[in-house]
């Protein structure tokens, strides 16, 4: 898991840097022993300087040994400081970072404001959260307190978590009239991760904050600017989550750059799948859940996508769930297609 995360970060960093025309500064803000930054320094040709920081003295001593062993003294700097204090030293325009990695144990929320102020305009911030139970709806009151948003436990829980994390980043960035542009998002069993460009245009955020309503009676879901309290299909009460980020969570142009800049087959597949779903509506569906609700045998995702396309609906797999898919069809239309498919197979 850790190796894949670092592979992904290095790929995103290189893809972003390849378009900038110059080498970049990188902040390994909560570096520990520096595994991420050391790998980046050794594997990327786009590094100008890597700034390591950790409050743990013992970790920093081991980090310095790694720097010496890898002969990286000229391209690195080590700090022993609390993360917010470290970032506050780089808020002047000429000292800000091109790329900041925030990968704490738990929530990154307490560091986001400092990171935004320490990042260059159009720079990239990598946000990782490991407090999944909070963001995914197990503890919605804690989520409201930490992130300013109510979470909801649904089949697409990790997408809701990502959209809450992005909302928090967008909200904090807007304090400085800055917008956000998500480049790529990814989740695993143990973490939620978003790579986001911070822009100088608040219009990149406007109109992309809203709420989701989920009907637990018929499993319909809706994303809207204001909360929708009742289901438009069965009239049952919706459960509400939000505010959330309602805009795209993948950037098409960046994904094409990333595809052209990687020779890692696992990352290539991830980027290509994300590209396919990048223009489809928020909130994916899970095949097993639909089949269970209809009391029919589960279908392979490919079969469902084929039926949807045959009936002129847009659809694709999602990188957020192995048996998930996105579509512009609603749950009523999906159920109807699958019921017919099940009957025809008897």
TrEMBL record:
One of its GO terms (molecular function) is tRNA binding. InterPro entries: SAM-dependent_MTases_sf, Trm1, tRNA_met_Trm1_C. Signal peptide: none annotated. SUPFAM superfamilies: S-adenosyl-L-methionine-dependent methyltransferases. Its EC number is 2.1.1.216. Keywords: Methyltransferase, RNA-binding, S-adenosyl-L-methionine, Transferase, tRNA processing, tRNA-binding. GO terms for biological process: tRNA N2-guanine methylation. The keyword NAD does not apply. It comes from the Archaea. Belongs to the class I-like SAM-binding methyltransferase superfamily. Trm1 family. This is tRNA (guanine(26)-N(2))-dimethyltransferase. It comes from uncultured marine thaumarchaeote AD1000_38_A02. The lineage of its organism: Archaea, Nitrososphaerota, environmental samples. The gene is TRMT1.
